[in-house]
Design goal:
By secondary structure, the protein is mostly helical. Helix content is about 60%, strand content about 5%. The chain contains 12 helices and 2 strands. The chain has a two-stranded parallel ribbon. Helix 10 links the parallel strand 1 and strand 2. The radius of gyration is 22 Å and the shape is globular. The relative contact order is 0.12.
């Protein structure tokens, strides 16, 4: 976590940031997280004296602790409600066939990628998207039912590995787009209501925290 011995003084920028932080929100939550997850026997005053990291590092490390202990995605996923109209009307034949391929290949990401790539080549309205799919310029990250039952940090880590590889290949001009696809029957049939909105917002909050 980057904490030093109790006698070390916090760096000025860290002290300044803490002084201006909403203490009633940040410090109690962080201290509780330390107690629960790290077994670090401390209190707010000792915590303030012990920090030996910059403000930026502190924000990052607090974010990791918060993600590691939160299961918002799992909870919000469980709260999704089925869309009765969608269950009756279904999807277009092309999309329905692609979904079936994805769900049958849950343990084989390469087969899932092939299914999505074929659909993009034939049905993607964007010409550049069709070309990228045809030339293999897209990297995919698939999240299945088991992934959405994990902690928010585990969801982020599942995305980070292929994203890092995509970034490396994109730097060499071998890849162009990175697609994250949470592909489950429950999500596909979810009612577009406040529950799906809450799930989507939490998912988006996890993804931007990824490292380059």
């Amino acid at each position: 976590m980057g904490f030093g011995p109790p006698h070390l003084t916090a760096r000025p920028e860290a002290s300044s940031w803490l002084a201006n932080a909403p203490r009633r929100l940040f410090l109690p939550r962080f201290e509780a997280s330390l107690h629960r997850g790290l077994g670090y026997n401390t209190n707010v005053n000792r915590f303030n004296r012990s920090i030996n990291v910059s403000a930026a590092q502190l924000r990052v490390e607090f974010g990791v602790v918060e993600l590691a202990m939160s299961t918002h995605i799992r909870r919000l996923y469980a709260e999704l409600r089925p869309d009765d109209w969608r269950l009756t009307a279904g999807f277009s034949p092309e999309l329905a066939a692609t979904q079936d391929e994805i769900w049958r290949a849950m343990s084989d990401p390469s087969m899932q990628a092939s299914a999505v790539s074929r659909w993009l080549q034939e049905n993607q309205p964007c010409l550049f998207g069709r070309i990228a799919a045809k030339w293999g310029l897209i990297t995919y990250c698939f999240l299945n039912e088991d992934d959405l039952q994990k902690t928010d940090l585990e969801v982020r880590e599942k995305i980070q590995a292929p994203r890092t590889e995509w970034s490396r290949q994109a730097f060499d001009g071998k890849k162009s787009a990175f697609v994250i696809l949470a592909a489950t029957p429950r999500l596909a049939a979810a009612n577009p209501d406040e529950h799906l909105l809450a799930f989507s917002r939490r998912f988006v909050r996890v993804v931007p925290a990824l490292r380059n």
